Amino acid sequence: MEIIVNGKRETIRPCSLAQFIEDKGLKPGGVVVEHNRKIVRQPEWDAIQLQDDDTLELLSFVGGG
Q1: How far apart are alpha carbons 21 and 46 in whole angstroms?
Q2: CB atoms within 10 A of CB 17
Q3: Predicted pLDDT at 63
Q4: For residue range 6-60, what is the model confidence (pLDDT) as tens digits?
Q5: Burial of 27 (C-beta count, 10 Å sphere; 0-12/13-18/19+)
Q6: pLDDT at site 64
């Protein structure tokens, strides 16, 4: 299936939002997710099954100094 992630089309396996974040190697505590223009809190990630043409915006926090 295909979804749009940060403005780019990607082909992914059928999965939940939580599985997608894990597949990407992102740390759940350090990422904010917008799914189809709605901010999704981490406890809701398992319940969201990604569908063709879904749109995700992922924002990762990076520390530094």
Answers
A1: 10
A2: 20
A3: 67
A4: 999 999 999 999 999 999 999 888 899 999 999 999 999 999 999 999 999 999 8
A5: exposed
A6: 65
Beta bridge partners of 38: 35
Q: Which of 59, 47, 56 is nearest to 2 (CA)?
A: 56
State how many domains the chain has. 1
Give Cβ neighbours of residue 44 (< 8 Å, ≥ 6 apart).
17
Amino acid identity at 37: R
Q: Which residues contact 2 (CB under 8 A, 6 or more apart)?
A: 9, 10, 11, 12, 52, 53
Beta bridge partners of 57: 34
- CATH no. for residue 45? 3.10.20.30
Residue 31 lies in a domain: yes
pTM: 0.89
